[in-house]
Amino acid sequence: MTRADLDEFRERVRDWCRAHVPKDWRREQTGVSDEEFVSFQQEWFQELRRAGFAVPHWPAEWGGGMPVAEQVVLYQELAAHDAPRLVLAFVAIHHAASTLLAAGTDAQRRRHLPAILDGEIWVQGFSEPGAGSDLAALSTSARREGDAYVVNGQKLWASGAAHADWCLLLARTDPSAPKRRGISYFLMDMRTPGIDVRAVRQATGESHFCEIFLDDVVIPAEHLVGPENEGWRVAQRTLGAERGMTMLELAERLGNGGFRWLVELCARPGPGGARPLDDPLVADRLAALETELTGLRALCARLVADEDPGPADASIVKLYYSELLQRMTDFGAEVAGLAAHTALRKPLSSGWESGAWVLDFIGSWEWTIPGGTSEIQRSIIGERGLGLPREPRGS
Amino acid sequence: MNIELSEAAAEYGRQALRALRAAGGDRLVQLAEREPGRREDLVAPVLRELGAWDLDPRGDADDLEAAAALCRSAGYWAVAYPVAERLARPADLDVDGLVVVADSAPKGAVAGLGLRWVAVTLDGRRGDAVARTPNVPPRTSAFVTDLDVRPLDEAGAGDVALGLVLPCWTLLGMLDRAIELTRSHVLARHQFGGPLAERQGVQFQLTDAEVERSGAEALAKYALWSVQAGLAEALDDALALRLAALEAAETVFRTAHLLHGAIGFCDETTLSWVSRYSQPVRRLPLGLSATRDRLTRQIGRRGLTGLFPGATS
Fold it and tell me: Which residues does the UniProt record annotate as the domain Acyl-CoA dehydrogenase/oxidase N-terminal (chain A) (predicted)?
């Protein structure tokens, strides 16, 4: 693809954004009900889908096939035009899709990939009260009975479970096997009897995380992904998506959305009339953040374009993004000052950097803790990337 | 020079800790938030019984140390009551407490108590202050409210240092607690077949936080001594303490939250409450950057006097 092709594509995306990004959505999506949020997300997803922009990272045969260079441009322009994020479809188009594409059966792909394009919402049911960083210690059980599995247990930190149609579920099918070997991977219909979803209220005041209680939930055997007891291997694909492909969009959004607002914030005169930007310390911090952002965006683009990424590349990107997001939102909260503490609602459908800096900073901890904490990422980089010996394990 | 608290003051602090535990401990802040109207009744009787309002921190050296110890104990339980502000009341005015405020938009965590306040700016301008009725619940305001200030005089320069130092002792109690909670959590939480505390990566983060906390503790003692000794540079020392305590709070709470994992952001954990109620003292009267800026202007190129005056030219 030539530079001219890419420029032409960029023009096309810009025209599309100007015509289709909803005007004033930030104001309208602040403080709306769950129902309004869901319907707004669904409409926006379909709008993107009609343009071929909803799942550009999927294979062409399933509706994607966009070259990585064009994806970068697409995400840059969506962020620069302040388009809403696909919050609700996130797990479906990334985690569910990459799992199904890598390990699903043809029947599973045909059943779910088109349904995801039609708006099927997914949630990830991995963590448990006793299995966070040590995910393989999970104890939710799935007992085979005839053509089905009967599942019992509890899942925690299931983001968006309240709206989900389907769940990516890890459960233990062989309690006697070593812990990584006895886990299986299921697709669970959230309408099945025995599922109880309860919201957990967070420090930001939202209830995005949920608990899922599973009481004799029957899952047909055809919803098993990959062979029985090989769920751990399949789950690595799901987690790989979280640490890999999704980052391209997030990095471009941070650079073209969040950072731009931070600069605007610093250019606004404060109570005394002076602009924070005129303070050399502030200017210095902004320059340092922009340098880091440039590095992050390059790392992400390389990760996605690379046919054969290194064993720790995705972890490097996740670690770098999450800690940079934290530094940047922290600085935003600092510059925005006391007044920012009174902004207690942020527009739904916005990204991790909404411009409500205090909420964004608190929310940034959703990055250094879930999906493998920063410590887990460091262990992976040390052990798999640098080939260092594993830390001695507890007995 | 001995900057350690006297044994009597330390014992007073331990008694206060026990009395507040008996009165409800961690539930005190939760109850106050749920029923803001009961805020006074929840802790004021205990404090009265402890003789808190009989202390004369501005007039008596032993009382000053006892006051600091009491603030630390109140911080440990994140008691949602302006203990430090009441103890810092000026000697020459008939009021219930003193709030150090910024030059503009004066605020304090003193909503809904019906007490008589005096506000003082860092350069000593004093005014009668009336706490406005807050229009947001304590869940989001942590009892911070705007103050209506009627100018009184410019004689408060001597009030400021203690008014800054005592809240730092409250914050110190919160840091004590955050470290203690996190230590317990990483010992109790098992992942990968053992307690998180077995991981050196976890240990090092907690030890870094503890180093920050103990540095703030040493400075708290030094700044208290500086006030007690009536040193000319007591305000410099108070600002230096505030800066160090705010920096320590960032490190300590950041580490505490990270090592607790997601549960640390839910109100099921005590950490979430302590962290939230540490916000007013960390933001008011000046946040981290503003405190640093103020200290820099205050000491200019002179530097802090410190323990060994004259050691450098």
Answer: 5-120
- Burial category of A174 from C-beta neighbours within 10 Å (exposed 0-12, middle 13-18, buried 19 and up): middle
For domain A122-229, which CATH number applies: 3.40.1160.10, 6.10.140.1670, 2.40.128.110, 2.40.110.10? Answer: 2.40.110.10
Residue whose structure tokens are 């403080």 = A31
A79: part of which helix (H) or strand (E)? helix A68-80
A249 is catalytic: no
CA dist., res. A175 & res. B51, Å (int): 60
Its pTM stands at 0.84
In angstroms, the CA B182 to CA B178 distance is 6
Candidate from B199, B267, B288 with C-beta closest to A391: B199
Measured distance CA(A168)–CA(A234) in Å, rounded = 11
- 3-state secondary structure (DSSP) of residue B167: helix
Nearest chain B alpha carbon to A338: B283
Tokens coding A394: 């507890």
- Residue A161, classed as helix, strand or coil, is helix
In A67-208, the DSSP E strands lie at 122-125, 141-145, 148-155, 166-172, 183-189, 195-199
Say how far apart CA A282 and CA A287 lie, in whole Å. 9
State whether B267 and A201 contact (CB < 8 Å).
Answer: yes
My answer on whether omega of the bond before B285 falls inside 30° of 0, hence cis, is yes
Chain B's closest residue to A179, CA to CA, is B192
CA distance A360 to A375: 22
Residue B312 at interface with chain A, using a CB cutoff of 8 Å: no
Instruction: Give the HSE-up count for residue B171: Cα atoms under 13 Å, Cβ half-sphere.
Output: 31
Nearest by CB to residue B193, choosing from A337, A370, A393, is A393
Greatest alpha-carbon pair distance for chain B in Å reads 64
Beta strand pairing call for B117-121 and A183-189 = unpaired
How far A389 CA sits from the closest chain B CA (Å)? 14
Which has the closest alpha carbon to A155: A175, A166, A140? Answer: A140
Query: Per-residue confidence of chain B (313 residues) as pLDDT tens digits?
Result: 677 899 999 999 999 999 999 999 999 999 999 999 999 999 999 999 999 999 999 999 999 999 999 999 999 999 999 999 999 999 999 999 999 999 989 999 999 998 999 999 999 999 999 999 988 889 888 999 999 999 999 999 999 999 999 999 999 999 999 999 999 999 999 998 899 999 989 999 999 999 999 999 999 999 999 999 999 899 999 999 999 999 999 999 999 999 999 888 888 899 999 999 999 999 999 999 899 999 998 887 777 887 776 655 4
Helices (H), B128-199: 138-141, 157-188
Nearest to A394 among B107, B193, B261 (CB): B193
Q: Are B239 and B232 in contact (CB under 8 A)?
A: no
How many whole angstroms separate alpha carbon B235 and alpha carbon B159?
10
Interface ipTM > 0.85: no
Domain boundaries, chain A: 3-87, 122-229, 244-385
How far apart, in whole angstroms, are the C-alpha atoms of residue A346 and residue A340? 11
Q: What is the DSSP letter of A348?
A: T
Packed helices A68-80 and A280-305: angle between N→C axes, nearest 10 degrees: 150
**Domains of chain B (ranges plus CATH)?**
159-299 (1.20.140.10)
Specify the fold of A244-385. Answer: Butyryl-CoA Dehydrogenase, subunit A; domain 3 (1.20.140)
Distance CA A334, CA B203 (A): 29
Residues of chain B with Cβ-Cβ distance to A134 below 8 Å are 190-193
Which parts of B65-214 are beta strand (E)? 97-101, 107-108, 117-121, 126-131, 145-153, 190-191, 194-195
Selected catalytic residue, list A242, A249, A252, A366 = A242
Asked if A91 contacts A160 with a C-beta cutoff of 8 angstroms, the reply is: yes
